[in-house]
Amino acid sequence: MDHHRLYLQGDDATPERLREILAREGFRVLDAQEAAPANARIMVELDASTPREAARRIEELERTALELRNLDVAKSQFLTNVSHELRTPLTAIVTYGEILRDGLLGEITERQGEAIESMIGSCRQLLGMIEEILTYARTNAPAIDIRPAEFPLEEVVESVRDMNASLLERKGLRFATELGEDAVHVWADRDKVAHVLGNLIGNAIKFTPEGGWVRVMGSAAAGQPGWVQVQVEDSGIGIDREHHELIFREFAQVDASRSRVHHGTGLGLSIARRFVELHGGRIWVESDLGKGSRFSFTLPCTQPADEDADEPASGGASGA
Ligand code: ADP
Fold this sequence. Notes:
Order of helices and strands: EHEHHEHHEEHEEHEE
Shape: globular
Strand order of the largest sheet: 4-6-7-9-8
Bound molecules: adenosine-5'-diphosphate
Number of strands: 9
Number of helices: 7
């Protein structure tokens, strides 16, 4: 629900009560003079000239908000259930495929081995997508939080690069990392940063044709002391400006046709945005069709002063 925006316009006497209800429901309320952002999803104009009318509108909005929240919960629950149900048989297929491939049930020919290998590869791809759906469903839980600690950014970039090593090699892509002195460490939830970088680097590789390059850069965020800016750049197919906002929405893909070449759930960037925003940072893209893409996000690199008191001695993060 956090991506919904409500635009209010109306009686001066009502906004406080309304704000209270809407904030409770997870909406962000804009002032009447404020321009609605381009990514506004739900726009409600409150034109309540009398207190009675205002009360009716508040009730209506309360009901709508509750319905939306229930639908959101039902959607997440459905996705969780379906993903779990799919994961179990798929894992069994991979396991039996590996048993066959390794010749544990008898000799197999080279061609049979290749067929089994590609079957295992496809199942792993499906499992990856199912994991992404599960992460998305969990990400939508109201209680999601972050466990920040200090860690070296480079370690996470390297582990994501290692995970993609065979794909990088197969596509003949050059991979470079340029982390400045001022972006060595970040103060963040390591698993979530690994997820964000995994998605951005994975996309950069996926959407860059053979022979291209992918580059990860980090430096102090301009005009934001205590923050770093990380960029994942590629020389790939690029994204038309009109789609820059759309791609951060759940299930959104630029090419949603059945014949599309690139596979995916369309959830990666919406999860990445959620994770970055949980840290108080922001994420955006600069790109043009055919001219590559540059995704940037900001992260804190120092512990906020008010976290000193309740920071556990062991640090909060687990390994990537
Ligand atoms: P998925 O990759 O699973 O489709 P994402 O949310 O990660 O979902 O990305 C959404 C869409 O944004 C992609 O389907 C693609 O159209 C576009 N996109 C993301 N990253 C890039 C990139 N580096 N280059 C070109 N297009 C991209």
